[in-house]
Amino acid sequence: MDTKKEKSAVILCFLLLVALVAVIILGNIKNNKENKNIVVKSEDKKVSLQKEDKKVNEKEKKDLYIKLKNKEDISICIIGDSIANSEGVIKQENNWNEKLKKYIENTYNSKVTIEHIINNGGLSERLDLYNKNKKQYDLILLCSGYNDRNAKIEEFGPKYENFLNNIIERNDKTEIFLVVENSLRKFDKVPNEIKKIKEYYELNLIDLREAFADSPKPYKQLTKDNINPNDDGYDLYSTAIFDKIKLNNKENKKIDYKVKDKLYK
């Protein structure tokens, strides 16, 4: 009898132990599922937050014309040679950079900051300086002039396109004006290449050769040496560029430039 009781007790203990193990295993499985659900929900929430942050950042990125309409501060970078920096101007108030700044501030009540990347070397040197700069701008004026006249076209085109792509990749809301200086009036190869790139990327072209030709004053009266503008010549720079800004703003231009397949393979 005692033996039967002992066997029953052993069996009962065994069953209780099995039940306990089963409870523990089932509990762990449940916890693992709950933890996985928590992780999944956490990841989903993280992705959702990232998407929301991206949307907020996109909304915060405003182009030049939106900022002008809102009377917000804007930044301009002028890249080029000495003419891009109004070198040789007699009266400082005729500096075309400063006149452009005043035109914008007086018309749109936006504070304007202008920075320069000036180098009398070639396009490669200016690109190197721009890449080291790391800043973002609302408007970039990429000026080409007399020092570019003898550039090898097979090299100039790809370098110029690379320069533009670097600008667009840094900030696709940056407005870009391609400026051909009057000093290239007798040299068509580089301006023609710039026009081709302008058409492909749908950018703005400011051709000062045309502005000088359309002026009622003879060309000699607009330059000091048939190359560098005098004060009257520099006035055409600020006027032509500001007129383009006004026109684009009036037409409610939206800036959303894209890096395309390379024009130069």
Automatic annotation (TrEMBL):
Segments forming domain SGNH hydrolase-type esterase: 79-236
Membrane-spanning residues: 9-29
Keyword list, A-Z: Membrane, Transmembrane, Transmembrane helix
Residues in coiled coil: none
InterPro entries xref list: Ester_Hydrolysis_Enzymes, SGNH_hydro, SGNH_hydro_sf
Pfam family, one: Lipase_GDSL_2
Lineage: superkingdom: Bacteria
Protein name (Swiss-Prot/TrEMBL): Lysophospholipase L1
Lineage, uppermost ranks: Bacteria, Bacillati, Bacillota, Clostridia, Eubacteriales
